[in-house]
Structure formats: C-alpha cells, structure tokens
Amino acid sequence: MSHVAIATVITENGISRCISATPSSGPGTSDLRITGVTERAASEIRALVIAAMLAHGIQLPDRAITVDLVFDVPFEATSELALAAYISIVETICPTIC
C-alpha cells in the first residue's frame, strides 16, 4: 500500500491547526499503533479510534496498522488527533481491506 497522508485542519480554542495523519498497514495481527505522540496520548487516541470504528461497524483488519501523526503545535485534547487518525484509516486503509 502506498503511503497517503490525510491533512486535516482542526480549530481548537479559535486557533486553526494542521494535522497530518499517515496510515500504513503491514503483516501481523490486528493491531493499531499511533506514533508521533507520547505513549499516554497514543493510548487515548487508540481507544478513541477503536471506539469510533466499532460504533460505525468497522473492524480493524487482520493486519498491523500504524498511523503517524504530525502537527504544527501541541494539542491539549487527544480527541482532535484521534479524529485525524480515524479519518486516515477509514479513507485509505479500510476501503481496500476492511
């Protein structure tokens, strides 16, 4: 799979911020790894993304998925980053293998 970055602009406290979320998939068991943030933030983002996928009837494929997040300034809430990760997975990986 070619790497496709999904760029999203999120407004937080009246300030627009750009997030780039680049998903990739590879062999392995069904797993979701988030990079570019602290382990605590990655854990929160992973939980939010999995909850959103389940709420929409989307299951993680039987592959390892990694989403690399890059953003211009730190975010106070992980929910905006989770939204970018979710969109990147659904738009690029899920149409082909979910």
What is the percentage of strand-forming residues?
A: 25-35%
Average pLDDT value?
Answer: 79
**Largest sheet strand order:** 1-2-4-3
Order of helices and strands: EEEHEH
What is the number of independent domains? 1
Distance between the termini: 14 Å
Structural class: alpha+beta
Count the strands? 4
**Helical residue percent band:** 25-40%
* Biggest pleated-sheet summary: 4 strands, mixed
Uncertain parts = none
Global morphology: globular
Question: Rg from C-alpha positions?
Answer: 13 Å
If helices are DSSP runs of H or I spanning 4 or more residues, what is the number of helices?
2
Walkthrough of the structure:
The protein is an alpha+beta fold and 98 residues long. It has one domain (6-97). Helix content is 37%, strand content 33%. The chain contains two helices and four strands; from the N terminus they run E-E-E-H-E-H. The chain has a four-stranded mixed β-sheet with strand order 1-2-4-3. Helix 1 (39-55) crosses helix 2. The longest helix is centred in the C-terminal third of the chain and has 19 residues, at 79-97. It is globular, with a radius of gyration of 13 Å. The two termini are 14 Å apart. The model has no long low-confidence stretch (mean pLDDT 79).
Brief characterization of the structure:
With 98 residues, the protein is an alpha+beta fold.
Question: What characteristics describe this protein?
Answer:
single chain; alpha+beta
